[in-house]
Amino acid sequence: MNQERIFKVLLGPHVTEKTAIVGDSSNQVVFKVTSDAAKPEVKAAVEQLFNVKVTDVRIANVKGKTKRAKHGMGKRSDWKKAYIRLEQGQEIDFASVE
Description:
By secondary structure, the chain is an alpha+beta fold. The chain has a single domain, classed as RRM (RNA recognition motif) domain (Alpha-Beta Plaits), CATH 3.30.70. It is built from 3 helices and 6 strands. The strands form 2 sheets. It has a 4-stranded antiparallel β-sheet with strand order 1-2-6-3, sandwiched between helices. Strands 4-5 form a two-stranded antiparallel sheet. Strand 4 (66-69) and strand 5 (72-75) form a beta hairpin. The longest helix has 12 residues, at 39-50. It is globular and about 50 Å long.
């Protein structure tokens, strides 16, 4: 996988109450990823960008919600998120990443 693809696969961390609970209980981090990302690509990108060892990657497709607007019904975009389990003793600190 080339360097350009590594920087494009991960879109950013997905921070919610649920992801905070998952992170504390089972040493996982959740990222928003591109819609065409595959598990090996996500694993390689996280390992190279953050210098950590990844043990498991799970990917979930999130369907966009249908919303009512002034001009009728609209739909938010579908997106994809990846649950990344890190090896014991390793963590990603987003505050110190440059």
